[in-house]
Write a structure and sequence with these properties.
homodimer; alpha+beta; Glutamine Phosphoribosylpyrophosphate, subunit 1, domain 1; five-stranded antiparallel sheet; 12 strands; globular
């Protein structure tokens, strides 16, 4: 399984992905699920994937192959939403080409974000069916994979005005919570940070043995525990002495 | 959907269930999913259910009908695990009787807890297939229904030595987190508290408009938010200024 999330903030975009993949519990490996593509000076894309690993890799290979052609590609689209539709079409085609042998197991889901010069930076969730949604303005985040464990924190803490520094802490806390509750999600983690208007993405890998990662996890889980003791005392009708 | 959880602590057992049911988004209702059965002075059971509402109600009706017979019932079993197996058999039979029309949609999952005099109090998860598991000694909780949203907190905070008062706050925080992230889980909430050896269960309903519930939710979500600011500062290699 997988956990990827993307945030769209006033300051920029933030992407975070785990790297754990598994085909059964005895075949666990590490694969990059976050990819940066810069097919021109006027555009940059960040792609995150969940679902069938073979499908996501074939889709990525097709995306890169198409860049060298005259046809539709991430270099030729005029708008971000067209990039999302193009990615959705490739994704559907690859899954369909393996459907006879794999059925629904061949499907994949993507997050696509970035900016094309002159347009607002944005993030999209691209479904296996080939269609997409934007993030909402009220809760400007999207998730794919094991999205439930770390969702509440995003609902509470992700707003457009949040700065990238705070948002990175939110995203990492959501990630370490997910990894703690679900063995199929794990480090190293890949982050990508896009500051609006720069058309340039900072990529960061956070290794499993990163001292900051352990510090953050410890602090976050201790904070959760402390929170219980800070809650208002139970009224006596709720729990008699 | 549903969220039910049960905790097995040194002091006693704690059960918490939501009440929301839905058949599509336009048919939402409130049904009790937590039931206390005391079929003798030497035993008490708490039952929580998730899955097909019709199946869970039919299983409950059968459990109660069997109490008036000479055959196997919650009154006749000698051990808690036999109660779990008996419940599992009824559950499987009811689901099987509706399988032709409903398929897997007819299945239900139960948490069963309580004490039979002379035995250790315990909690069980009873699967649609009719088998069961105990809670583990290391993480002495079980969940059914929408279990992912509120799992991390339980993993962090539920240990055998935790007192019932603290455990009630943990369970409620896990519940309000789940309800915030998933509209299919909601109040009123039913709690049952069993103090070991008493053979008597305290039942508490927490209404949707309970002032304590809003206080607790506000405090918990504010605490989550505050936690982000208390995390160690991001090192510069992780996010350059």
């Amino acid at each position: 399984m997988t956990y990827c999330l993307a945030l769209r903030l006033n300051e920029g975009l933030l992407f975070l992905s785990d790297t754990r993949t598994n085909a059964g519990v005895d075949n666990i490996s590490t694969f990059r699920k976050l990819h940066v593509l810069q097919p021109g000076d006027d555009r940059v894309f960040v792609l995150q994937s969940a679902g069938n690993l073979a499908t996501t890799q074939e889709v990525l290979d097709l995306l890169r192959r198409d860049l060298a052609t005259e046809g539709e590609s991430l270099a030729s689209v005029n708008h971000l939403f067209e990039a999302a539709l193009y990615l959705g079409r490739l994704n559907r085609q690859v899954a369909a080409s393996h459907q006879a042998s794999l059925g629904a197991d061949a499907t994949a889901t993507f997050l696509l974000g970035g900016q094309i010069a002159g347009e607002r930076p944005d993030i999209f969730l691209v479904y296996p069916e080939g269609n997409y949604i934007h993030a909402s303005d009220d809760l400007p985040f999207l998730q794919i994979g094991e999205s439930k464990y770390g969702k509440v924190l995003l609902e509470v803490a992700v707003r457009q005005h949040v700065d990238l520094r705070t948002a990175t802490k939110v995203a990492l806390s959501s990630m370490v919570s997910t990894a703690r509750a679900n063995i199929s999600v794990g480090p190293p983690y890949d982050a990508a940070i896009y500051r609006n208007g720069t058309l340039d993405v900072e990529e960061i890998r956070i290794e499993a043995n990163s001292p900051y990662l352990s510090e953050l996890g410890e602090a976050w889980f201790r904070h959760l525990l402390d929170g219980i003791h800070d809650l208002p005392p139970l009224p006596s009708e709720l729990l008699p002495e």
